[in-house]
Automatic annotation (TrEMBL):
PANTHER family: GLUTATHIONE-INDEPENDENT GLYOXALASE HSP31-RELATED, PROTEIN/NUCLEIC ACID DEGLYCASE DJ-1-RELATED. The keyword Methyltransferase does not apply. The keyword Lyase applies. It comes from Amycolatopsis taiwanensis. It comes from the Bacteria. GO terms for biological process: methylglyoxal catabolic process to D-lactate via S-lactoyl-glutathione. SUPFAM superfamilies: Class I glutamine amidotransferase-like. One of its GO terms (molecular function) is glyoxalase III activity. Residues 29-227 form the DJ-1/PfpI domain. Belongs to the peptidase C56 family. HSP31-like subfamily. This is Dimethylallyltransferase.
Length: 230
């Protein structure tokens, strides 16, 4: 049976420019919706993170006023999937050859650790070279920044993608005090960044790269990947 790898952040806090720590974790919908879509399509899904650390749930993703009326289902699905999988794989021990696709969900964690995680960079570089599908949603595209060569050239420069926008960060209340904003950083480093209306589903495919703008884009992105794999 073909396998898909979901790479999670290991971060539980996000240090702000004033030195305060903002609690973070995985965003339930961004983990649960892709997991659900791939499992329904017959794929086995593994979970990995830096050091095999299990990130906590971002509590905002369990709040219906923030994450929408379906959030409880996503919270339950994500918790069950992680519980049944057991200890996460250590990212440094993962071989991209074992997977047909790699998916990076969000929550703010990826802007804390995954953007500069060398083991993720190694994995993504190998996966891209082999034509494996790569998906990243919301803040997950921060993980794409880890894929740089010996001369610090970014692997995904020039590629079309989307990610959580600066506007959405401001609406969410986390733009002020952020060390950097994801969409702006992607553009600065050479990505062709596109966006749709705030908090509405918006996805982009560029070859083997699939990206989603925000939590609502999680399921559509996964569906597009499933269709491409088929």
């Amino acid at each position: 049976m073909s396998k898909v790898l979901i790479v999670m952040s290991a971060a539980s806090t996000w240090e702000r420019t004033n030195g305060s720590l903002y609690p973070t974790g995985y965003w339930a919908e961004e983990l649960a919706a892709p997991h659900e879509k791939f499992v329904q399509a017959g794929y086995t899904v593994d979970f990995a993170s830096p050091g095999g650390v299990l990130q906590p749930l971002d509590q905002h993703s369990a709040d219906p006023e923030v994450a929408g009326p379906d959030c409880a289902r996503y919270v339950e699905h994500a918790a069950k999937a992680l519980r049944e999988f057991g200890p996460l794989l250590k990212l440094g021990e993962v071989d991209s050859n074992d997977y047909v696709a790699v998916v990076l969900p969000g929550g703010h964690g990826p802007v804390v650790d995954l953007y500069q995680e060398p083991e993720l960079g190694r994995l993504l570089t190998a996966a891209d070279a082999a034509g494996k599908l790569i998906g990243a949603v919301c803040h997950g595209p921060a993980g794409l920044l880890s894929a740089v060569d010996a001369e610090d050239k970014w692997l995904f420069a020039g590629r079309e993608m989307t990610a959580f926008t600066d506007e959405e960060e401001r609406i969410f209340g986390t733009a002020e005090g952020a060390p950097w904003l994801l969409a702006s950083r992607l553009r600065e480093l050479g990505a062709k960044h596109f966006s749709g209306p705030a908090y509405e589903a918006f996805t982009i495919r560029d070859g083997n790269l699939f990206t989603g703008q925000n939590p609502a884009s999680s399921a559509p992105m996964a569906e597009a990947m499933v269709a491409a794999l088929a």
